[in-house]
# Entry
Amino acid sequence: KKKGGGDSKRFGYRTTRSVKKEREALALLKDLFIPFGGNVDLKNPDVSILLFEGLGDGDEKILTRKVADGPKVSIINPNTRHCVTNTPLCPTTSYIMCNLGRIKSHSTILDPYAGSCSLLLASSLIESETTTVGIEIANENGINRTSIMTDFYSRDLTPPKSLLCGDFRNETIRDMARESIGNVPFDVILTDPPYGIREKQEWTLSSSNYPWSLCHTNPLLDIVKIVAMDLERGKPLICLNGGGRLVVFVPCTSQQNIYDLLPAREQLSDAMLSLEVMVEQRLNDSLSRWLVVFESK
# Structure
């Protein structure tokens, strides 16, 4: 744990490499390494072995063999992008959300609170033959859509089919999103919706960028209600029969119960969705965010 602002403790911290600690750890593992024998080729090793520490409260260390490299998400790091916003979603988290959405070739993906399009960038990074659409309520003063497109083109990634400026809760905007993919439902809705922090900051800076009323609703409940409404009017927003997924973040304070923040069983039934996965990420000692996955029935 590391001290953050005020009395809150932030979980996780960055540190520099300690050669001294590495040498001490290797000395402790000497008996394990001796049976290998021979020379060590650091540039082209036959086997890569990694040592992890800091995974528990004590002085625990884990020795593990490297079997594969992860995605090169650093190419979409916020500090490398043309579109700059206050609270961009980190690339690793974006990639995880795409995996939970089961992104594959020819998937159609909607982000109803797109922001700088971190999730759509990750989708294109995973699979080039995806069709993505973003909806963002901020106008060009808040979100530069030209810069967003540059972020895709400069990385040779498939750009969004459409970037719509408007409120996702507006029926016309949703119809435009469907029209951009041929008037069919989306395979996946991926989003990290606003819950008030970013919007409060931007409202203070410029009241023309974000409507303050957006902060007085629960975006997840809005999404589920909208999915049900669009089903009722014969324009389903998400694929049915187990083919569609909704992946969304939900913040939860230490005074709240996450289940009180989720849609009721009746609301999920109306939207033909079922709760599949819930994973907590603790941000500090008073706030968590839950990654929640719903699947269509």
In short: Residues 1-7, 197-216 have pLDDT under 50 and may be disordered. The chain has nine helices and eleven strands. The domain at 73-296 is CATH 3.40.50.150 (Rossmann fold).
